[in-house]
Amino acid sequence: MRFLTLTAAFVVTGICLNLSSEAQTPAPAAVNPLDAIPESMPFDVPYGAPISLDRAEAAIAAAVAEARKRHWKLNVAVVDSGANLVAFQRMDGAQLASIAVSEHKARTAATFRRETKVFEDGIQLKQNYYSLTIDGVIASRGGIPLIEGGKIIGAIGCSGGTGSQDEAACKVGAATVK
């Protein structure tokens, strides 16, 4: 009986040691998606002439009309292709902190030539936390470049609602520019 117990103890010890060494073996390195080299430049949209005041106001009017239809209180900003403020409107009762946020969203969309949702998705879905260290980035949807003839003429930014509300109103405003 003692022999069987001793044998069983050695077998169990051997199995434990084997499992322990396998658990410490490092997994093969995963491919880092940040190491991928794209064939072409992403978001390579050239800058065009700046948007006019009349067109900026039309984009804002469309975004505000969409917000009113849905009973949202938003701040809406339009910047030109150089990210300079062209027009702004604050709806009655819109959150004061969102004044600067709407402008920031528009500037980010213009200077980085992409929707601000790209940064939000990069951080939330892809864990690209380095985006948080880039000056001038706001990683919240609701900033959309205004493109005419394949060139960026400005951007629109909305803030005051949820990110999806801001984005929906901006898309309606951006649609007036095409």
Strand order of the largest sheet: 2-1-4-3
Number of helices: 5
Q: Between the first and last Cα atoms, what is the distance in angstroms?
A: 88 Å
Largest sheet data? 4 strands, antiparallel
Give the CATH topology of the largest domain.
Beta-Lactamase
Task: Give the CATH architecture of the largest domain.
Answer: 2-Layer Sandwich
Give the amount of beta strand, in percent.
15-25%
Radius of gyration: 26 Å
Total E-strand runs: 4
Secondary structural class: alpha+beta
Low-confidence stretches: none
Shape: globular
**Number of structural domains:** 2
Order of helices and strands: HHEEHHEEH
* Assembly classification: single chain
Helix content: 40-55%
The averaged pLDDT comes out at 88
CATH superfamily of the largest domain: Haem-degrading domain
